[in-house]
Structure formats: structure tokens, C-alpha cells
């Protein structure tokens, strides 16, 4: 009886051991498959044409589509990642751009430069930025129209190149990248203590030009730049916007979800002066005194191509100056000739 029990126990023990080994083998197989899948996933989500550009390695350089200027292959998916740091922005300037488009018929291309060809079903480059930690698409670019300059809203940006089944010999694209801290604005003196501010002094130059970030490309989102103009005593600041394309609608602020340009005679808001947005032609303004401020601000959606403006420090109007000179001169303020005045004083002396 006891033997039977022992046998049964042994039998149970042997069965348990077999099950345990089977379980271990199953677990090992599961782990092997899992690791294999993970390895496969890690090796297949990347692509041989992926590129990573870091500002601590190179501040600028060039990159191209695979095989450029020869034709690129079909079914390509290439990621180009750009990683800067601090207040650096990524600026992309395409120098050549010829991608295959299934509707590459000139009659189907938009005639107006503001209109874009649809990229549906076409080889394309898609630009992404980071908004609140999430990857957000800016736009698609396709066909043979060279895209405008691009600029990120932070220190990171990425491009994705996708090709369809047939490239038909299109040579692809070539572009230049830069990690910039000046927002593409090269005039004035950049104020290092501010994220984006530039100072223009009359003592340095009496006239010049300034423009929005990344002009003539689309300005970056979530960006605020200040332009401070300091004239000398007796001077005023004249501003002329020769190009103005700021996405938005009146009243050009938060209520209309608009980007805007604000001008002010003060560091604070100037209640006498409106904010500007939309398309404007030959927009002109003049300061009341020796200080003027222009501020550009964009929000986190939709883009425009910004503005290009000229500034000039000019003396206060000549007529005012002449009036001041006359009023300060006793001889010129008298209605009588100098000789008459002398005679008057002489007669007064003799009579007394
Ligand atoms: Ca906007």
C-alpha cells in the first residue's frame, strides 16, 4: 500500500517534473520568440537611409535623398532627424528639389505661387516639429517646386522622405541644414539675454532693413521676436513694411487666434496703435519720440511668410526746427528793423 503510494507519488513527481521542464521550455521558447520579435522590430523600424544630425557635432551641413543626383529607389522611407539644444532653431533650405509626381502635368500645376500642388499619391518630403512634446506635421512638399525655407519652433525637427513605386528618374532633393540662434535675422544687434530680440541704434546706422524669423520662408510657430529702435534726441523712427504676410484676422490677437505684428512707442502696449495681421501693402508708421518697438508673435497653428521692412532714423520735421530757430532769435521776432529800435532807444534817452 505504502509502495503504491510511493510509486504514485513518484509518478506524480515525475509528471510534475516533466510539466516543469515543458513549462521551462515553453517559457524559453516564448522568450526567444519575444526577443526575436523585438530584435526584428528594432532592426526593421529603422531604415538604412535614416540620418541623424546633432548640433554638438556640426552646426550646419547638407543632406540629400538617397543616391542624389541619381534617381532614388521605390518604396523608400527615410527619416532625417535634427537635434539642437538651448534656443537653437533648425533651419532647412532646399537647394534642389525634383520629386516624381503622378500628375506631373504643367496644366495641373497651380499657377498662383501661393497655391500648392496636392501631394496625394506623390513622392514627398514631410516636415514635422515638436508641439507640447508631440510630433506635429507642418506640411508636405512634392513635385518640382522648391519648398521655401523651413524653421523649427524648438531645437528639434524632422523630415520624412517617402517614395512611391516608380520614380521615373527624378533626381530627388538636396538641402542645407543649420542650427541657428539668430532666427535667420542678421541685422541689428541681438540681445543675448532675450530669446529673440534685436536692437537698432541710430548711432550705429541711420537706416537699414529687418525681417521676420526665417524670412522669406515660413516663420516658425510659437515664436516671439522684438525689434527695438533707439533714435537720438530730436530724431524719430520711420518704419516701412514693403512685404507683409502674417496669418490671422482682425483684431489680430488671441480672440481671433492670429499671429500679429505689434508696434509701440513704449516697451508696453501702445493703446493708440493697432496690431497688424493679414496681407498688407506699404504699411508705414512713425514713432512719436526717440524710441520705437516692433514685435512679431506667432501661435501654434498655421503659418505665413512674415514681413520685410526698412527703418530710418530721421530728424524731427524741418519746419518745426525752423520755427524753433526763429522763436529763439530776438532780432527775427521783432516786427521793426534793427535801426528803428536803436533810434527808439536814443529818443527815449534824450527825452528822459
Ligand atoms: Ca499661426
TrEMBL record:
<feature type="domain" description="CUB">
    <location>
        <begin position="49"/>
        <end position="180"/>
    </location>
</feature>
<dbReference type="InterPro" id="IPR053207">
    <property type="entry name" value="Non-NMDA_GluR_Accessory"/>
</dbReference>
<keyword id="KW-0812">Transmembrane</keyword>
<dbReference type="InterPro" id="IPR035914">
    <property type="entry name" value="Sperma_CUB_dom_sf"/>
</dbReference>
<keyword id="KW-1015">Disulfide bond</keyword>
<feature type="domain" description="CUB">
    <location>
        <begin position="196"/>
        <end position="314"/>
    </location>
</feature>
<keyword id="KW-1133">Transmembrane helix</keyword>
<dbReference type="InterPro" id="IPR000859">
    <property type="entry name" value="CUB_dom"/>
</dbReference>
<protein>
    <recommendedName>
        <fullName>CUB domain-containing protein</fullName>
    </recommendedName>
</protein>
<dbReference type="Pfam" id="PF00431">
    <property type="entry name" value="CUB"/>
</dbReference>
<keyword id="KW-0472">Membrane</keyword>
<feature type="transmembrane region" description="Helical">
    <location>
        <begin position="20"/>
        <end position="41"/>
    </location>
</feature>
